[in-house]
Amino acid sequence: MRPHSAHWGVFSAGWRDGALVVRPHPGDPDPNPLIENFTTAIHHRARVTTPMVRRGWLERGPGPDARRGEDGFVPMAWDEVLDRLATELRRVQREHGCEAIFGGSYGWSSAGRFHHAQSQVHRFLNTTLGGYVRSVNSYSAGASGPMLPHVIGTMEEVARRNVTWEQIVEHTDVVLAFGGMALKNSRVASGGISRHVERDSMRAAAARGCRFVSISPLKSDLPEEAAFEWLPAVPGTDTALMLALVHQIVSDGAHDREFIARCCDGWDSFEDYLMGRSDGVAKSCEWAAPICGLPAARLKALARELPGKRVLVVVSHSLQRAEHGEQPVWMGAVLAAALGQPGLPGGGYNYALGTLAHYGKRNNAVPTAALPQGDNAVKAFIPVARISDMLLNPGQPFDYNGRRHTYPHIRLAYWAGGNPFHHHQDLRRLSEAFRTLDTFVVHEIAWTATARHADIVLPCTMTLEREDIGATPTDPLMVAMHRICEPHGLARDDYDIFCDLAKRLGGLEAFSEGRDTRQWLAHLYERTRTGLESQGLEAPDFQSFWQRGEITLPQRDDDGGILRAFRNDPDGARLATPSGKIQVSSPTVAGFGYADCPGHPAWLPPKFAPDTAHPLWLVANQPHTKLHSQLDFGAHSQASKRNGREVCTMHPKAASARGIREGDIVRLFNEIGACLASAHLCADMREDVVQLPTGAWYDPVLDASNRPMCAHGNPNVLTRDIGTSSLAQGCAGQLSTVQVERFDEELPPIRAYEPPAAQEAC
Ligand SMILES: Nc1nc2c(c(=O)[nH]1)N[C@H]1C(S)=C(S)[C@@H](COP(=O)(O)OP(=O)(O)OC[C@H]3O[C@@H](n4cnc5c(=O)[nH]c(N)nc54)[C@H](O)[C@@H]3O)O[C@H]1N2
Ligand SMILES: Nc1nc2c(c(=O)[nH]1)N[C@H]1C(S)=C(S)[C@@H](COP(=O)(O)OP(=O)(O)OC[C@H]3O[C@@H](n4cnc5c(=O)[nH]c(N)nc54)[C@H](O)[C@@H]3O)O[C@H]1N2
Ligand SMILES: [Mo]
């Protein structure tokens, strides 16, 4: 057994009687079952075994093509495919400049820090061609990333260097968890996670008397260990609920005036809005109750339990992955400020705590490995979730964070380490968008829908087939990720593919700096070693680290980050906002003049809410059996499917009104698209919600009436490709509106994992 690491846990792996066996790290108190997905994935038929070129591209050359996604593929030897790709990269650069190359290439790829595919592709494009059109922000935090710095501080500070689980166990009286804190989510961290502490921390806090309140459409968003109270609010209405709590607290005169005067800016104009002095609508509990679908008395009672307590407000990533997603992120900070809590141990506002294992943790006191990406000479960029808009609207303007920009005209897109047919919305529109390209290049381990839409598919190794370093700044264990098996088929490391391409483009030295993989690992490890050495700690050399398989890094004191420092000394440790204080209102944001993101947090009713045609909310959240779409074909993910389909969960009353029983195959649909799923009935959820997680591989087919649908259950055929607002333009894929009906036609087979048959060129 040898050590290895994934975004979902540290483990060791080896072969027993011809089968791959994985064992969680012995120090992990609550291991993540997702590691089981590896056991059957490694040689699965869905793996890409050889370089492939789309037949239409080969026969007619680069150019827009409606057959992308449906065409056949021709296998090609590595040397020939890399020659052709190098020639095409040069052509695009010569004819259109690097502004025509999209290398934004979003995606999580795998945990090793050297083979981090996004860093590899960015470094390659920077060092060999001079740059590429990039993307900013993430699908995780598309709205909060740009919003939080206007209000309180960067995402990193507010999410990652703030309240710890240790503080919650010791100090917190009430955790208000908007969007819950589901263990399925906090089991994951990019770069790896060695100890899953969330379950035990919640249990210990609850045992001490800490009260957890989960505001979420699904009861399953907090574990039993938290012994929580559940407020099943209507999706997308958290801002109204928070406004009502603050309205009640202010009406009772229970807000912390001293903290507000000392640490906040712009309270008065917000209070005018809150109390209805500026718009004639008091944001009272009676006002919010019908919006949120909760009794006013319950909201009032909750508001009255908060003043004087150590209260922690948590807003999950999911809340901001929706129309007007900026508002709950801002309002969460204002709620905590009204209670005077920011900066207190275990109190205040910790955006996103519980949504990933990065948050609620101490930070390492030494740096960990990261591959430098080089300099990008191209200035053009897009907010990451505007990919289809960019490809479909070259030359058109778009708003972002107070400025107006223009979409570049992209001819070539280069993707490594991500699956846009997992992460993006309105997948049929995305298909159309990729068809506008001259050339689409994808490095993949498996035949995802993204690979199927590519012109050039290059098979890359998966993590178990190569050596790497697993590390993240919020986990003390740095892991020597040993190779567990040989590459599948002709797969090669992303790094080696880029080296061979760089050589053809005359940029090998700049890209590789003359190092092979082992030499890079030793080079990247050196930063950590010197960090240890400079603190007088044991600083093993690379060979010793590699032989030991892991090393435990020192961590910083639990000092409460910028918010504690600011609370203790508002003048000396000003926040990085324009006023140096918490911006309850923001003249900067008001100055942008966006109707969809005004100058203080506000309730903005969604444009897309349930109606008679689509009466149910769709909650398209993270899957509990995999990370995104990764290893969807693996054992653990497959075991949760029924009839090969993804499972959607709905309330028994919503089901019986539609003649749907447990296990029936249903069709979910709206004006965007449709998909099949197997229905699971559950009373612990709102009646007006159907939940279908992301992650099932896109499997487009036509039904008996020739209407397109996904046979497998990918919810992104149902989500709208709209930005959260003109400010952040983030992904709004968490919520949609749908109708559901029993599907009585003959079931189409699932073909998502069948590789395209190798064809001969004509
Ligand atoms: N409707 C809806 N949509 C969502 C969300 C939602 O809540 N609702 N959530 C969003 C969020 S938060 C996120 S982060 C995104 C996630 O979206 P992605 O990060 O794009 O999803 P992954 O499935 O992790 O994609 C990683 C891909 O990299 C491949 N890969 C793995 N290792 C390697 C490697 O070493 N090299 C290369 N070249 N490839 C590799 C995997 O096979 C996989 O296809 O989805 C977003 N989409
Ligand atoms: N197992 C697993 N864990 C993961 C991931 C994964 O793919 N698989 N992905 C990881 C990544 S990249 C990220 S960014 C995080 C994402 O973290 P999140 O985005 O927070 O995770 P989700 O599961 O999408 O959403 C959490 C819960 O929010 C609730 N919710 C949805 N809409 C609303 C709303 O309007 N109001 C309220 N109050 N609640 C709402 C849903 O019931 C949902 O279960 O998860 C990480 N963890
Ligand atoms: Mo994410």
From TrEMBL:
Domain Molybdopterin dinucleotide-binding span(s) in chain numbering: 616-731
Keyword terms: Metal-binding, Molybdenum, Oxidoreductase
GO cellular component, one term: outer membrane-bounded periplasmic space
GO biological process, one term: anaerobic respiration
InterPro entries noted in UniProt: Asp_de-COase-like_dom_sf, CT_DMSOR/BSOR/TMAOR, Molybdopterin_N, MoPterin_dinucl-bd_dom, Mopterin_OxRdtase, Prok_Mopterin_Oxidored
Entry protein name: Biotin/methionine sulfoxide reductase
Domain Molybdopterin oxidoreductase N-terminal: 4-43
Listed EC numbers: 1.-.-.-
Keyword set includes Metal-binding: yes
A GO molecular-function annotation: molybdenum ion binding
Organism: Variovorax guangxiensis
Domain of life: Bacteria
The Molybdopterin oxidoreductase domain, residue ranges: 47-504
Cofactors demanded by this protein: Mo-bis(molybdopterin guanine dinucleotide)
Family of the protein in this entry: Belongs to the prokaryotic molybdopterin-containing oxidoreductase family.
One family name in Pfam for this protein: Molybdopterin
